[in-house]
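Q: I have 116 residues here and want to know how they pack in 3D. Can you give me a structure?
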Amino acid sequence: MKYRNAMELLPPQLLQELQKYAQGETLYIPKVKRESWGARTGAKTFFSERNMDIRNQFSRGVDLEKLSDAYCISEDAVKKVIYKKEMLFMNVNEIDFNKYFWQNDLVRVRRSRPDD
């Protein structure tokens, strides 16, 4: 983060108004639109794909210890990934249907849900 002198940056009226609230202090002015966590580095995508792989392998019968060793995370972390409720029901807009083997305009294969 770069510090800049407000006298050089802001119009005098705005500077006077700010001085009513904070004089000689450092202020942080947030961006109007922040990027979500991991969007710039690709970390969000990496962990999302890793977690989906963990869930798929667990549903195929791979036990917690093997998943823990394969992904170098604790068994408790594997449990958190597997049993996280918000990921069980994915938003249809977030699913890339191109990865499925069988699809057409009328039928799309999706993960099973508990209410099926």
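Q: Anything worth noting?
A: The two ends are 51 Å apart (CA to CA). Helices lie at 6-9, 12-19, 43-59, 64-71, 75-83.
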